[in-house]
């Protein structure tokens, strides 16, 4: 992995530098960069001339060290130093600059082919957001400073403000103090807000600990200050759209590592970020917007609410002469405080009231409760990630609210599910009939007249005085949805009842069974085998071992149901150890019946690969049974959470050194595929069955499928086509550069003896 050299304009301890370097370290570790070599110019304290001279001396002292071919420059002074004498760095082939504010430096960077990641655009998003929150156009008092960088930043912000319809410029303070801010506000319109761009807290005076308290000083005097940099929030700012520094850092490292660096855009702008406001503003923000905001200081706000409650209580008790009025005031205030508490219990991803509020407000003795689920949303989350699924759900919500009766209430549930409550205004049978028609109507809706339609399914629970507590109701609703999913969504609505006290859901029943079974899984677990064939002559080349569970009470439990339970219990490593040992034992027993190049694939979870003993144990098992490591292949699904690639990369390297092959399963449908192939040492990919199905339906998908094969082959990867369901697909694949075929048309998963009978007949004289 190549080294990355970083040059930062400012010193260690500068808040912006420390924030960004922390994010760069996280991104580098996540992407497998061993470490970042960081130099600090300290151009703000020392001045550019002296800082540049000292940096040149440092570089001259490193002439014996091989320089990095990848250079990352943070802010204007670092870029100016590089442009003055690129030869000091022995002309690295890849240079990326972050946060360049000087327009002249931007032009020079473009002329030198330096990739730039711009961050100042987030100010426009922040102004628009605050204007929407407080009512545009707001007058703004801007805080800046007159240092070289501070002046560029401030003037750029003022220019954006003047061009914005969300606000107007009321004034600018250069090198401000809290006292000057308060005095200036007294001369400006009463609705003037204060915005911090640069200043003594973060600019030229950033080493003075007293000045780092200035935002808190303004807050104590009732002057909130808004911003768009995360560390400024830590200093006491009241919020804004905060720059996503994690996105900036990841983009910088990925650009420097990209195999197609030359084709990367010369300028990328990070505009949007987190919408953050202090919770005390909650009541003043429009309700639809409030649902999209990350509220900070909620604890402090609620302590203030509780303080108000206590004060009102004592006032009501103590002032006996006005007891009636005091109690009336107390009652009204309690209702207002309760409403405020409810408004703060909002799920930020959907804008709906939270599950906690559902548990508080859901009727206990009458009415009905329901839980909604959409298979398309679940699939979107699995294939494309949580953010994409949340966006799809948000698009659907306005149409869903219109389709549901006005007195039916929606709440955010876990995952992509929604919870709801129906008042006791009609009989349960009538509610059930109405729900059927509503679900049918929801399936016909498109968000805003366009976009993907989602099919919705529901479990429904009607309450009476004998119903259990809210936890038992929630368990019953969850189990109802899981039942529909297990059966392939055969009906739109399932009526459920709360379990009796002490009862347990199927999920919990399976969890309890697994915790016992994991010590002796062979009593109920077994492996079945699906064959893999060559594309031309359909000769058997291998098989995939698949886990099955025959439960004594529930019968055959699908992996899609019990594997999430295994993962939630933290039993994945024990399961993978059993599967790998059982698969190796099976190979050893039947090796002579199988061709010499036969290869068995097993699926392994990421937690097992992160276990330092897993690879060694696998090697010992193969050695003990005198099996060549090449007869075993480890499959990892693309949809797994590849958070820490460095650990996974080390495990895969260990497997390859051992001689065990590694493949990426379900390739082509997730959002991490190409990054994984660039970083991790795979031997093969298995193209997801959905891609092949799409190629049969859509002309464009045919070329996309072929292009993926060409891409994988150019990387030297073997290609396995999954999901071969008919002869037409098999004939088409025979014309492409795939190596193995797998699917129901050629062979279904089968028990061991059936597999051997069909595909590995007994040879004369073989020792079985």
Key words describing this protein structure:
single chain, about 775 residues, alpha/beta, eight-stranded mixed β-barrel, six-stranded parallel sheet, 30 helices, 27 strands, globular
Question: Any chance you could write out the topology, listing elements then pairs?
Answer:
Layout (H helix, E strand, L loop, with lengths): L3 E5 L6 H16 L5 E5 L2 H4 L1 H13 L9 E5 L1 H9 L9 E5 L4 H9 L3 E4 L3 H13 L3 E7 L3 H16 L3 E8 L3 H8 L7 E4 L17 H7 L4 E2 L3 H6 L3 E5 L1 H13 L9 E3 L3 E6 L8 H4 L3 E3 L1 H21 L4 H22 L10 H7 L6 E6 L1 H10 L1 H18 L5 E4 L5 E5 L5 H15 L14 E6 L7 H17 L6 E4 L9 H12 L7 E10 L5 E12 L3 E3 L1 H10 L3 H19 L8 E5 L2 H4 L4 H11 L7 E6 L7 H14 L2 E7 L5 H7 L4 E4 L1 H9 L1 H16 L3 E4 L5 H8 L5 E2 L10 H8 L9
Parallel strand pairs: 1-2, 1-3, 3-4, 4-5, 5-11, 6-7, 6-8, 8-9, 12-13, 17-18, 20-22, 22-23, 23-24, 24-25, 25-26, 26-27
Antiparallel strand pairs: 10-12, 14-16, 14-17, 15-16, 19-20, 19-27, 20-21
Helix pairs in contact: 1-11, 13-14, 16-17, 22-24, 27-28
The averaged pLDDT comes out at 80
Please work out how many helical segments DSSP would assign. Answer: 30
Question: Helix coverage percent of residues?
Answer: 40-55%
The poorly predicted ranges are 299-317, 319-323, 337-343
Strand adjacency order, main sheet: 19-20-22-23-24-25-26-27
> What portion of residues belong to β-strands?
15-25%
Report, as a whole number of angstroms, the end-to-end distance.
48 Å
Q: Roughly how many Å is the radius of gyration? A: 31 Å
- The general outline is globular
The description of the largest β-sheet is: 8 strands, mixed, barrel
